[in-house]
Amino acid sequence: MLTVLFFARLREQLGQSSVTIELPRDDFTLGQLTELLIEQQPDWQKLLENTSILTSVNQQMVDNDHVINDGDEVAYFPPVTGG
Amino acid sequence: MIRVSEPDFNVADEIALLEADNSQDGAVVTFTGRVRQQNDGHDVTGLFLEHYPAMTEKSLLGIVEQAKEKWRINRVSVIHRVGQLYVGDNIVFVGVTSKHRGDAFAAAEYIMDYLKVQAPFWKKETRSGQDAWVEAKTSDQQKAQQW
């Protein structure tokens, strides 16, 4: 089981702050997770595939080819604007 | 010292902590970021700072570690507020001490530049009664890439 979190404008646009999802197999990448989320929620495609969206796994920013494991915490969020 | 929380901070107290029992450092550089009244031509009355609680301190710690690898610095404080803030309120504090000023100046700027593009905080401004997410600036990305 994976926890997927959404923050800020993306959280508002998706209308939810988190989902949990079962990984279909080992060696599943973050990019494949995005595809799986879109398969389940087709109207999320434009928002999740927006190239400005940042992603983290276990609180470390990573790219689409990062392999995720059961129990990981994945997050999708817009460019950061702190400071 | 890294702190992410709602309460305000006092700059004089934070400088005192950087200086206490510290006779080895001749330089103390600090930066304070505050809520501006105007942003991108809009009148701003306040802003809400959202963050990713499990990641923010980790991310700031990573940035401070990188700065410590690049420069000879000693004490570092990074404080970032979250929640509802108003015009004139403190948002962020970065303080760095070092033997000589060059390292502290550079490290403080580096930490702020990377905080702006890597630490998971998001600002939502209140503009004349309406809320709007603040857009990330490409100039901030370019500034961080200069290091």
TrEMBL record, chain A:
UniProt organism field: Thalassotalea algicola
Keywords, comma-separated and alphabetical: Molybdenum cofactor biosynthesis, Nucleotide-binding
Gene this protein is translated from: moaD
UniProt xrefs under PANTHER family: MOLYBDOPTERIN SYNTHASE SULFUR CARRIER SUBUNIT (PTHR33359:SF1)
Annotated SUPFAM superfamilies: MoaD/ThiS
Pathway membership, UniProt: Cofactor biosynthesis; molybdopterin biosynthesis
InterPro entries to which the protein is assigned, alphabetical: Beta-grasp_dom_sf (IPR012675), MOCS2A (IPR044672), Mopterin_synth/thiamin_S_b (IPR016155), ThiS/MoaD-like (IPR003749)
GO MF annotation list: nucleotide binding
This protein's name: Molybdopterin synthase sulfur carrier subunit
Family the entry assigns: Belongs to the MoaD family.
GO BP annotations listed: Mo-molybdopterin cofactor biosynthetic process
NCBIfam families: moaD
GO cellular component term, pick one: molybdopterin adenylyltransferase complex
Keyword field contains Nucleotide-binding: yes
Automatic annotation (TrEMBL), chain B:
Sorted UniProt keywords: Molybdenum cofactor biosynthesis, Transferase
InterPro entries: MoaE_sf, Mopterin_biosynth_MoaE
Cited SUPFAM superfamilies: Molybdopterin synthase subunit MoaE
CDD domains in the cross-refs: MoaE
Bilayer-crossing regions: none
Pathway: Cofactor biosynthesis; molybdopterin biosynthesis
EC class: transferase
Reactions listed under catalytic activity: 2 [molybdopterin-synthase sulfur-carrier protein]-C-terminal-Gly-aminoethanethioate + cyclic pyranopterin phosphate + H2O = molybdopterin + 2 [molybdopterin-synthase sulfur-carrier protein]-C-terminal Gly-Gly + 2 H(+)
Single biological process term from Gene Ontology: Mo-molybdopterin cofactor biosynthetic process
Molecular functions per Gene Ontology: molybdopterin synthase activity
The enzyme's E.C. designation: 2.8.1.12
Pfam families assigned: MoaE
Family the UniProt entry places it in: Belongs to the MoaE family.
Subunit structure: Heterotetramer of 2 MoaD subunits and 2 MoaE subunits. Also stable as homodimer. The enzyme changes between these two forms during catalysis.
Stated name of the protein: Molybdopterin synthase catalytic subunit
